[in-house]
Amino acid sequence: MSIDAKKLAFAGSILLTTLGRGGAAGAQVGDSAREAAPVRSPARAVRAERAERAPVIDGDDRDAVWRAAMPLGAFRVFDPTEDGEPTLRTEARLAFDARHVYVFVRAFDPHPDSIVSRLSRRDVRTPSDQIKVMLDSYHDRRTAYEFAVNPAGVKRDYYAYDDGVEDVTWDAVWDVATRVDSLGWTAEFRIPLSQLRFPRAGAHTFGVMVTRDVARTNERYSWPVYRRSRPGLPSQFADVAGFEGLGASGRLEAMPHVVATNRSATRPDGFARTQRQDLGADLKVGLGSNLTLDATVNPDFGQVEADPATVNLTAFETFFDERRPFFQEGTGIFSFGADATRLFYSRRIGRAPQLAALAPTDADVPGATTILGAGKLTGRVGNGLSVGALGAATGRERAGGATVEPAAAYSAARVQQDLRGGESGIGAMFTGVRRSLDAADAPYLRDEAYAGGVDLRHRFAGPFGGRYRLAASLAGSVVRGSAQSIARTQRSAVHYYQRPDAGLTYDSTRTALGGTALDLSASEVAGTWRFDASYSRLSAGFETNDLGFLSRADMQTASAGVRAVSSRPRAFWRNANASFDVVTQYTARGTPIASTVELAGYAQFASGAYLSADLWTDNAGAVYCDRCARGGPALRLSPATSLLINVSRDDRKRVVPYFAAIYTVGDGGRSTLWRVRPLVTLRPASNVNAQIGARYQRNRDATQWYANVTSGGTPRWLFARLDQHLLSFLGTLDVTATPTLSLQLYAEPFVSAGKYDDVRTLADPRARRYDDRFTPFPRTTEGFNSKQFNSTAVLRWEYRPGSTLFVVWSQGREQLDRDPGSFEAARDYRNLFGARPDNTLAVKLAYWIGR
Q: Which residues form the signal peptide (predicted)?
């Protein structure tokens, strides 16, 4: 069989631990607080102190407001034990004035020299001690602004939505000072109200939670107590009253930038060098106290790291995460239904030109489409109503006189209404794309594409005290264009209308195509035993790839699973869970196309090390792959079994080894795949973090699609046996001089080579016996040898709050024409580094102007 692409993608994208370990804290300074008896304050209904005089943000608690503010000392352990007694004492105080919220946290520690403090870039989580302040300024129990700092002064901030989903790309402009003294360490926060959103009112109650991480004991504390056995995060915050006379939450920020770029790229006749200077700007405007308008003109994404190297032998597009800051921030509001990117996938805006094949071979095709401008409006209006709107325009891209991407306009709109205090909700979403096509483009691309839908969620307490969640969504789509472009859409891997046994009507005269998508799910999201069940159906004509991401249509999926979660340390583990899942898939007309039975387990041990194992079987019973023949008849699949293992040492150590391995066997032993991924994280100093890793894969696939041909007037769907090697290496180095000055290095050389033999054509594709499905088809085979190298060096200096200087150097190498079908690691890597490189040097200066 062909190994299931989705499982391979999952196994190939294992999350590698990148956290750092802290060394000793910095030098001690004078005492700033007196040791006092523990203070236990109520977990709910406290008041913030109004500051008649703003405190000096220096990590010292001798300001008058801190002497007057109510101490909050009832911190409790939430990890590893829920509602446990903390080893160390913590106190917090809250204050405000017309422009800021102030928070002072004293983290008592009898051994200040053992406080773990590591330097890193902003927004990079290291295994340090940490204090985090979370504010639900809307007081909707669904959203929160999070501000975290470690003893070295490294800041992180997030926006939480949907009662706990964190948007790590959200950035605010705020101040914090930390200090280590003989009593432990302190953190003093100043958070401008301009960075928050809250309704218009004379007095406010905020939801608040403060957490503390103690790295050396591996404990986490919170006030009020956070119960991991319950769903949600903001819904567990304490109510803090007394926020009266707050100034308007207005926000006006501008960030003009200038970019100078020098690029040299290889061409058949040598090198082509280009130099350019660009001006652009980002603008952020607070519209009242609830809405934010973000706009960008001629944005630059030069500091964004490269996508990982890959060779895709499937019929489906490879999914890459969004990495561009403008599009990352606030994306949570544009997620829809069970599949967050099905309707909106922001990487479609500014994508690589789709018609690069029309350019002359010696033309320099741009790597991305120019974004002329983009804007988005996000926020909350009225009582629990969230809104989001985005618009963007891209320019026409030409290469060698040919249009490789037409000008286009993109739009997306989203509304969500919370009900029952956020426990339920209903939402709607709409997306649209319009392209400016000419006679040369029209046969290939769609003129316009629209999609929209509604989604609902409902959370409630069950009869046995559990927490249950129901969700549903219904979406529709329509695309329009020339008959040629809609015919191409029908024949694409997303649809394959031309399949002879699909029961679909392929119509080459169509100028529009439409379809629907339905998703239903139910789950228990709290307690030791949890379950989930879901059903989805995508009709054959559903198409969202103009502004969304959709691998395939014409599919029904039904799944059910049960999970056991341990919320308290037991025997030898700190945290553990186990799950059992069953997934079946059918075409919209009912042909079974996939089945999976999966058993998985995870354990984090008392030492901090962890182990996970995942065992699953695909294609039990009669299952037919309707995509394997790339538009041909459905092919019966033989069972395949896979085992995936991940193991890592405690990530607080200076040397953290990590190892992942997967093994798959299918087609009655004819097909096998195994992959190993060793990686080690090194922390030789408190401000240095390095990773060195490798990946080796050997894939012997007896049922790899090879080609579709016509022989003697008869269509033939050819398959072959593939023998593939893949070897790649990964190296990263982060050096942080100060919390505002850092250097980041990344390099990934990649080689994948494969050869084909034993070419066969389909004979009886639905035969029960594997050998009866094919018949030999003599054909000379060709292999491949794909080599890539991506590297980036980024120097980042935040020379003043919100203002940043980037110096970026990147190099890319690619070689496809040497030694196809043959793999020799030493030779291939020698040839890769002998290939001509593409080099880019960019300097970006951005200056933040705001109030």
A: none
Distance, CA of 2 to CA of 770 (rounded, Å): 12
SS3 of 833, please? Answer: helix
For residues 557 and 574, give the distance between their C-alpha atoms in angstroms, rounded to a whole number. Answer: 35
**The pLDDT value given to residue 332:** 76
CA atoms of 69 and 85, how far apart (whole Å): 24
- What are the residue ranges in the chain where pLDDT is below 50? 1-44
How far is residue 100's CA from residue 1's CA, in Å, rounded to a whole number?
62
pLDDT of residue 289: 63
The two beta strands, 49-50 and 90-96, are parallel
Asked whether the beta carbons of 532 and 523 are under 8 A apart, the reply is: yes
Among candidates 508, 450, 514, which has minimal Cα distance to 482?
508
d(CA 804, CA 179) in angstroms, rounded, equals 25
CB neighbour list of residue 669: distance below 8 Å, 6 or more residues apart = none
* Nearest alpha-carbon partner for 191 in 56, 266, 101, 57: 101
Give the sign of the dihedral formed by CA 401, CA 402, CA 405, CA 407.
Answer: positive
Kindly report the backbone phi and psi dihedral angles of residue 825, in degrees, each rounded to the nearest multiple of 5, phi listed first.
-55, -50
Q: In the structure encoding, which two tokens stand for residue 669, read together?
A: 């032993």
Contact indicator for 458, 424 with CB cutoff of 8 Å: yes
Supply the pLDDT for residue 312: 66
CA distance 743 to 50: 41
C-alpha closest to that of 616 among 575, 666, 659, 658: 666
Count CA within 13 A, CB hemisphere, residue 594: 21
The DSSP element (H or E) to which 254 belongs, if any, is strand 252-267
Q: How far is CA 439 from CA 481, 532, 817, in A?
A: 12, 50, 34
Query: What are the tens digits of pLDDT across the range 26-76?
Result: 333 333 333 333 333 344 458 999 999 999 999 999 999 999 999 998 999
The DSSP secondary-structure symbol of 8 reads: H
Q: Domain 46-244 class?
A: mainly beta
**DSSP, res 492:** S
The Cα–Cα gap between 569 and 577 comes to 12
- The b-or-e profile of 82-121 (16+ CB within 10 A means b, else e) is bebebebbbbbbbbbbeebbbbbbbbbbeebeebbbbbbb
Name the residue with tokens 């190297």: 309
| Cβ 428 vs Cβ 464: under 8 Å | no
In contact, 142 and 161? CB cutoff 8 Å:
yes
Write down the domain spans for the chain. Answer: 46-244
